[in-house]
Amino acid sequence: IRCWSNIPFITVPLSRAHGKSFAHRSELKHAKRIVVKLGSAVVTRGDECGLALGRLASIVEQVSMLQNQGREMMIVTSGAVAFGKQRLRHEILLSQSVRQALHSGQSQLKDMAIPVLEARACAAAGQSGLMALYEAMFTQYSICAAQILVTNLDFHDEQKRRNLNGTLHELLRMNIVPIINTNDAVVPPPEPNSDLQGVNVISVKDNDSLAARLAVEMKTDLLIVLSDVEGLFDSPPGSDDAKLIDIFYPGDQQSVTFGTKSRVGMGGMEAKVKAALWALQGGTSVVIANGTHPKISGHVITDIVEGKKVGTFFSEVKPAGPTVEQQAEMARAGGRTLAALQPEQRAEIIYRLADLLTDHREEILLANEKDLQEAENKGRLALPLLKRLSLSTSKLNSLAIGLRQIAASSQDSVGRVIRRTRIAKDLELEQVTVPIGVLLVIFESRPDCLPQVSALAIASGNGLLLKGGKEAAHSNQILHHLTQEALSIHGVRDAVQLVNTREEVEDLCRLDKLIDLIIPRGSSQLVRNIQKAAKGIPVMGHSEGICHVYVDTDASVEKVTRIIRDSKCEYPAACNALETLLIHRDLLRTPLFDQIIDMLRVEQVKIHAGPKFASYLTFSPSEVKSLRTEYGDLECCIEVVDSVQEAVEHIHKYGSSHTDVIITENEKTAEFFLQHVDSACVFWNASTRFSDGYRFGLGAEVGISTSRIHARGPVGIEGLLTTKWLLRGDNHVVSDFSEHGSMKYLHESLPLPQRNAN
């Protein structure tokens, strides 16, 4: 028997074999039986007198939602003392005001003193009201709640333990939510606590222990402990270096420094950790989280059950590798070392990676074949994604060529002076290029993205976190291994990290203190999800690639079919493939129009008619459902416009600001189109497929950005750099430049240093 406080804990609970707790957060969604422990700080108001009704209502709503999903929910609650204190204060004030009004007059009302309220009396006065409140709230969701009061003595008597166990099982069987609390009206009084302004709240440590005891006794799958802090920190919350611990493992106590307890209650974080570890040993998974934060309290319980990264998760299974937080810190440290290397050294790493891609071609293709085989066997990937997943000898050769282009163009990317100004005599200012920091690149079905993005990060001195889709796991693994091998020649192996843990993308997007920029590479749905999930981290990319080709009345017959075929058929799954073909009205029923249609049919392109195009035809193709559709396959929409102005208006209304093309021999019309279409890439008599970092001579790209801030279009090395200001002075102070000071501002532009001719 082990004892904490005055509750004995039997190592093997009655009629319970040792269970197995969940190893990963993602498994918590399978939790059937759940205990939610509400600490005093969660249930009570900030003035410690009365309940936080809005917060409590939100918790009841979440518990009800989970209960109605078929789960078995139990609540271990505090709050009776606070509720009773509120009621007794009101009664005392009312009683005193009546007596003083009768004997002393109104003038002495302001001098009334409220006596110290004894905690057990508060509990007795508040227990019925607290339960009535829970019942009223649960009734709103057609759920019945039942109250169970226990004392420490109930756990000493074997028969009482059996009775308690039987009662709880019977309530759960009847779909009733048990609400359990210590019977604070009869427990021995705790030690006085001056922080509570004369009122002692019954030990929260008892409720932590009670929750753990009940969780194990009832063979619960999950115990959620809600407090007033985000979870468990490695040092007291609020201290400069305090970091939230995402996952806590048995034996990690030595790495934690515990602080003081919460504003109310007797139990601090140390008591919660002890209770959590005991429950974990008994086979119950535990999460400690914040139940008071207004931004998350409304969904904290459901988020935990859904497996989201909230609070601290207690697990007995320690992963073989580092956590994603540790990987991000390693990437930042490695990136700073990388940025400090000479440009020739960074280029040498990229050249080495290009050579490794060629030297290990067979191993890469073998791993890729394994991914393709698994994807086909599971049948979960659409044809466009399968095409993106596939690697070939020609793809690897193109990759190697692109990487060498990056290496050659990266010689003066980091630390390049882009502005020099003489502020005053002997005071010179420089603006220089520097890395952004740590990049998170999330990509699906594109293993060739890994070496491309890695090379760009290396060239720009950025740390890099890579999160690839599980469908490309084998390919990504070997490509990342080769990348780290190349980085090792200058001791910066950790600068590029591949996230292999079971992290949800949404959780990665919350690491705003560790990640500086997110770059999604994948479907429009993936990009939209990331843009929605990112909290405080900028996202570079485009959600859709709705690219247009406008065929003008002055278009060349020879150029039209050639450009359209290349734009649509060369690689229809690409984001820069043609999706909507705009035809000038005067070209309808002409030989040129017939040639376009015949070519698309030969290439087996399915045609969807826009509303105006359909109105001109007796028997038209299927009418398009939306003019904002990215097909990503051998499909496209054809629509009719009356002029180049209408083509521009159509693109602005239905396009995605990605890539748009005009085919015409009229230079004036072409220039109007080039100047007025507000897209990242606008072309004249050229395929949409030229919208690519490699084809632009950037070597490769991390993606194509349609945003208007920082980088736009194919993003190469320049798009992964920002700037900082360097000021070199000699005992300069601002007061010298005041009206009566001795110095004057010059603000003279100075010549830039010569760039590397190579």
What would a concise description of this structure say?
The chain is α/β, with parallel strands linked by helices. Helix content is 37%, strand content 17%.
Description:
It holds the Pfam family Aldedh. Its main location: mitochondrion. It is found in: Mitochondrion matrix. The chain has 758 residues and is an alpha/beta fold. The chain has 22 helices and 26 strands. Strand 11 and strand 12 form a beta hairpin. The longest helix has 24 residues.
Computed Rg: 34 Å
**Estimated structural class:** alpha/beta
* Low-confidence region ranges: 1-18, 189-205, 262-267
**Averaged pLDDT, please?**
85
Largest sheet: 8 strands, mixed
What is the percent of helical residues?
25-40%
N/C terminus separation: 76 Å
Number of helices: 22
Strand order of the largest sheet: 5-6-4-3-7-9-10-8
Shape: globular
The tally of strands reads 26
What percent of residues are in strands?
A: 15-25%
Function: Bifunctional enzyme that converts glutamate to glutamate 5-semialdehyde, an intermediate in the biosynthesis of proline, ornithine and arginine.
Pfam families: AA_kinase (PF00696), Aldedh (PF00171)
EC number: 1.2.1.41, 2.7.2.11
InterPro entries: AceGlu_kinase-like_sf, Ald_DH/histidinol_DH, Ald_DH_C, Ald_DH_N, Aldehyde_DH_dom, Asp/Glu/Uridylate_kinase, G-glutamylP_reductase_CS, G5K_ProBA
How is the secondary structure organized here?
Layout: E1 2-4, E2 7-9, E3 33-38, H1 40-43, H2 53-68, E4 72-77, H3 80-103, H4 119-139, E5 145-150, H5 158-173, E6 177-182, H6 204-217, E7 222-227, E8 247-248, H7 269-281, E9 285-290, H8 300-305, E10 312-314, H9 324-340, H10 343-359, H11 361-378, H12 383-389, H13 393-409, E11 417-424, E12 427-435, E13 438-443, H14 449-460, E14 463-468, H15 473-487, E15 496-498, H16 505-508, E16 517-521, H17 524-533, E17 547-551, H18 557-569, E18 578-584, H19 591-602, E19 606-609, H20 611-615, E20 635-641, H21 644-654, E21 659-663, H22 667-676, E22 681-684, E23 703-705, E24 713-715, E25 721-728, E26 748-749
Parallel strand pairs: 3-4, 3-7, 4-6, 5-6, 7-9, 8-10, 13-14, 13-16, 14-15, 17-18, 17-21, 18-20, 19-20, 21-22
Antiparallel strand pairs: 1-2, 9-10, 11-12, 11-26, 12-25, 23-24
Helix pairs in contact: 3-4, 6-7, 10-13, 10-14, 10-15, 11-15, 13-14, 18-19
